Amino acid sequence: MEVIEGPMVTAPCGHTYDVQCLIDLVDAATVDETLFPPACCQQPFDLNQVWGYLDAKLRKQVERKTTEFGTKNRVYCHESTCSTFIGAATPSPTHMLCTTCWAYTCGHCKGPSHDRNVQCMSTEDESVIALAEESGWKRCPNCGQLVELSMGCNHMTCRCRYQFCYVCTAQWKTCRCDQWDEDMLLGAARRRVNARQEEERRRVNEWQEEDYTSDEEEEDPGNPAQYLEHAAPFYQHDIDIVGEAERLRGNYVCPHYWQFMGFGGHWQCFDCGTWNNFRFVSLDPRLYTVEHIA
Length: 294
Known about the structure:
Distance between the termini: 41 Å
Number of helices: 7
Radius of gyration: 25 Å
Helix content: 25-40%
Number of domains: 4
Strand content: 15-25%
Number of strands: 16
């Protein structure tokens, strides 16, 4: 048993925490709604009990998340690169200002703000409902927004941060549904394999296009086999896809294959669809490594 040094905090269930572990738990709960409010053995902490151990920044974050997670029908900034919580939904069209990106969102339909005399494009519209049923979309059990499965993993995280199973819409980790849609799993694996092989072919082509006949002394480019040996032959393609699919099935965390979308400096993962602002800090043949600066 690990010995706790320094001040200890006793959880409602009787377990003890050192201060730093408690702070880490509270911090994680402000990011993952399934952990909020912070609890041990499914018994929530009294926030008044832990308040004195939190710094001003974390206190403010807890206050914001208490309001956000306590709002049933939430409105988030319609800008996909922002998605900041801006308040509760309204019964009629209203202009709700996001103080993060300064965009206006309609408090009724949760889309871009519009004139009051313009009818909201609501997810309750018959045409939208029909399209949702035809496309197999699901509603977030928490906020009611329509959600589309864009890749193979049935673990969905809505814009309201609620996590649920796309198959049965139960809260994530409370059902026994399969985690993966097989067709989409193979699609995700195919995109990864294609991206890697495209990078390998690009490197081979760059070497072949080099002119090494110059009279000027040049640095030895090395054996081209070092590039060619990594270039997967075409007959290997399907085998690689199946192998990648099995790897994803066993241990998936989206590594984010970023592509520049060309407006506002934004990048989007072409696998899971995540948007954000980044700058490159390194480039790997198989995976872009980026640093978040937003």
